[in-house]
Design goal:
alpha/beta, Rossmann fold, Helicase, Ruva Protein, domain 3, 4 domains, five-stranded parallel beta sheet, 19 helices
């Protein structure tokens, strides 16, 4: 975005800056005071603002504060003919990109504008890379059900329309939401997730809308909410059907107006956010039960996407297994493991109540717990039975069935650490990172269980 907004009450300054910046191929908009400038900024989404400190009606510092409230990512270069160190420091503390004194050096203006745009581009690229790194898995499959989902992703990504993703747990609803964001024009912006089921009702409003200092006990400072953090990006409301009716009403208002106030605040904040919501519940049943607002459902359900269960896309299981086998390939092994034909038949016959997440966990488990390069049908059956999944008899507890809880926990922990150590070629640091503990704690577990760490 190469648009520059110049806010200065001197027509001569506006004219000179417009001429030199347009010569540098920037698109320039100008305003004679702060109110006009803020109105233009809402309309034009400038990539940079050049702002005079001394303005009629509203001072430049106050304009800077409002810009940083409403469009925090936009760099602001302050200019002044009566500058002092204290004023410059104050402006920079409030978020100004730079501070220049009049008379302006035109070469310096061009350099600073170019640097500001380059830094903003780097920020966007960094956000994009962070979002790419968070894109840990891909949507794998060629079945009719998953092909339909991929087509809807492509179609919906081109727009800013709201999307409602439904489907059972473990079907990849978040993955679909991230893919829509990644393919959209907002890909360089933030992807902000809110798990509505995991946040207590007393805190959900603060989480979504932020709060002002002192608005409630424990609010020791101002905090931005998820709507504000998702500005010019995507807000993903996961498990949206778990929100209380009161919170639903406030979310509905924000969707309608794209304006809100922080908890305890009076100023109205405007955001540019695309909303994607997801739930594993039947929303129409929730509406009938009086637990979900019908008007909110219609607002969210502009583009509905149904995430299919794994049982509804059995033909994708071999492809998913290949993908997860490569993902969880033990360190030091030249190639990913495979599953024999008999084992694959067992996997395709399994009901998969946990869907793709359950399959992913199964593949990770067999890569850790077995040494087979080609996973046998017996091994597949054993580890499916171990979690009580395949209905193959037994109580589903395997070797732990005759143990007490404490004994079973210790036996599993020892077995788990042994397999992880082997998978990482007995590298303590890498193993500790993989299992989520400090190396010193891992050493303690190794000594406790008498685990051999020879290569």
């Amino acid at each position: 975005m190469n648009k520059v907004l110049v806010i200065d009450d001197e027509p001569g300054i506006r004219s000179v800056l417009s001429d030199i910046l347009m010569d540098e191929k920037y698109t320039v908009f100008t305003a004679g005071d702060g109110y006009e400038g803020l109105a233009l900024l809402e309309k034009e989404e400038a990539g940079l603002v050049i702002l005079d400190v001394w303005l009629p009606n509203m001072g430049g510092i106050d304009v800077l504060k409002q810009i940083k409230e409403k469009a925090p990512a936009v760099p602001v270069v302050m200019i002044s003919g009566h500058a002092n160190i204290d004023l410059a420091v104050k402006a920079v503390k409030l978020g100004a990109f730079d501070f220049l004194e009049k008379p302006l050096s035109l070469d310096k203006i061009i350099t600073i504008v170019r640097n500001a745009f380059e830094m903003e581009q780097l920020r966007k690229e960094n956000l994009y890379l962070r979002n790419s790194m968070l894109q840990q898995d891909e949507i794998i499959g060629q079945s009719e059900a998953i092909a339909k989902v991929k087509a809807l992703i492509e179609q919906s990504a081109r727009t800013d329309s709201r999307v409602l993703i439904t489907g059972p747990n473990g079907t990849g609803k978040e993955l679909i939401a991230r893919e829509i964001h990644r393919k959209s024009r907002r890909a360089a912006g933030p992807f902000v997730e809110v798990n509505c089921a995991a946040i207590p009702e007393s805190l959900i409003e603060s989480e979504l809308f932020g709060h002002e200092k002192g608005s409630f006990t424990g609010a020791v400072s101002r905090r931005k909410g998820k709507f504000e953090l998702a500005h010019r990006g995507t807000l993903f409301l996961d498990e949206v059907a778990d929100m209380s009716l009161g919170t639903q009403a406030k979310v509905l208002r924000v969707i309608q107006e794209l304006k809100f106030e922080r908890v305890g605040g009076e100023d109205s904040l405007t955001v540019d956010v695309r909303i994607i919501a997801a739930t594993n519940k039947n929303i129409r049943d929730q509406i009938q039960a009086g637990k979900f607002r019908e008007d909110l459902f219609f607002r969210l359900n502009v583009i509905p996407i149904q995430a299919p269960s794994l049982a509804g896309r059995i033909s994708d299981i071999p492809l998913l297994c290949d993908y997860f086998m490569l993902k969880f390939k033990p360190a030091g092994e030249a190639s990913a493991r495979t599953i024999c034909a008999g084992g694959m038949n067992l996997l395709c016959a399994h009901p998969w109540p946990g869907n793709v997440r359950e399959l992913k966990n199964f593949v990770e488990r067999v890569n850790i717990m077995t040494d087979e390069q080609s996973i046998s049908a017996e091994t597949v059956k054993y580890y499916l039975d171990e979690v009580g999944g395949s209905g193959g008899g037994g109580d589903g507890l395997g070797e732990y069935g005759a143990m007490s809880l404490a004994e079973a926990k210790e036996a599993f922990e020892k077995n788990f650490i042994e397999k992880k150590l082997k998978a990482f070629d007995y590298n303590i640091s890498k193993t500790a990172e993989a299992v989520g503990m400090y190396p010193s704690n891992l050493h303690g577990k190794i000594r406790r269980y008498g685990i051999r760490t020879e290569r």
